[in-house]
Amino acid sequence: MKPVKVGILGLGTVGGGTVHVLQKNAEEIARRAGRGIVITHACAKTVNKTHPYSTDDIVLTEELSEVVNTPEVEIIVELLGGTTIAREMTLQAIANGKHVVTANKALIATHGNEIFAAAQEKGVIVAFEAAVAGGIPIIKAIREGLAANKIKWIAGIINGTSNFILTEMRDKGSLFADVLAEAQNLGYAERDPTFDIEGVDAGHKLTILASIAFGIPLQLDKVYMEGITKITPEDVQYANELGYRIKHLGITKRTEKGIELRVHPTLIPIQRLLANVEGVMNAVLVDSDALGPSLYYGAGAGALPTGSAIIADLVEVTRSLTTDPSNRVPHLAFQAKALVDLPILPIEEIETAYYLRLSVLDKLGVLAQVTNILSDNAINIEAIIQKEPLAGVDHVSIVMLTHKVQEKQMNQAIDAIEKLDGITGKVARIRVESLDS
Fold first, then answer.
1. DSSP character for 227?
2. 17: Cβ–Cβ under 8 A, 6 or more apart, which residues?
3. Which residues of the chain, if any, have pLDDT below 50?
4. Angle between helices 85-95 and 105-122 (to 10 degrees)
5. CA dist., res. 413 & res. 351, Å (int)
6. Superfamily of domain 138-299
7. Residues 98, 205, 247, 253: which is the catalytic one?
8. Does the domain spanning 4-135+303-338 belong to CATH 3.40.50.720?
9. Would the CA dihedral through 409, 414, 419, 423 be positive or negative?
10. Taking the mean position of all CA atoms in its chain, how far away is CA 165?
11. Does 172 participate in catalysis according to the annotation?
12. CA 242 to mean position of chain CA atoms
């Protein structure tokens, strides 16, 4: 059979890595796909040649529409980033009857419902394995490998930048700002790291994971997002003393009231495998009723790992070219007409345990006031650490772990505690998850 012709939008780091792997492993990939897969057209203002690949047989252009509108190109690989031009080109490719492979999590999380509906109408595939957790095949694992299961919950380290920062803070006792600067110097963080450190990037990915896990529409606007900028070396140290590690997690759970969708720093027990995922690595823990817990670990970014996921999608699309559209794996795991609009719980309604750190004046009765407020809000204390005051300092740090309680109760308690005369500054609050099945 003739090779499948592919057009690629963007030959930057990931695009270059994709072409490199596709050319390097061409024979092996063809054996798996049943026919060759070749990049014949590419749009790129600059060509990143960090990786050794040839552009001799590729038609290069600076016009996106030239690639998208080329009749012989059957698959478009979208690596533009952002959600404006990428959306326009994706919808144009679909309108032209072309399949699309993308690594753009923001595009899928924001416009996925519209894009999949358009693809369904045209009978084409939009594949997005590389949009979540880089080279880890988590989309295929949930969508296909766990198709027999009812997913209970997913918890994932799905942003390598945040995980690197928290790992360095723990290992070196460094301040957040210092480790962020190091991450930027190493190329792990962008010049503007907001999406990474404030949880937006993880929110995009969690939106996608929740949709394929529970068969719900993509709902980015309902994800609670909290970053890691307020985490201090003291919090990291206290968590360790209590037998926990702080990780920035994306968590989605199916409950009787609805679906939880939340991204935030989380204390998890040190003995959990997820607590020991270090540096820029990603990992996703899935708990399902038949299999039980399963962990998916690997590189969450990078040219070759992401290229690996993109090519896996190219192979999947190539295999499906002769398949009737009604017999293909649905975009969001469940048949389009079977998606259900379950309620998404606001953060105030979720229930979890908490880590609290307070700065308390070193005088009699203040701690009793704090515990009375917690008791009045039906919050039970599991553990407490009180540090000795430093010389010349009139306040001490007190750290508490609570039992599970609804977030709105904790909010009420923290508001009351912060109004006490004996409390200085804000109460630091980090949610705690046991992650047991």
1. -
2. 50, 51, 302, 303, 304, 306, 307
3. none
4. 20
5. 15
6. Dihydrodipicolinate Reductase; domain 2 (3.30.360.10)
7. 205
8. yes
9. positive
10. 16
11. no
12. 27
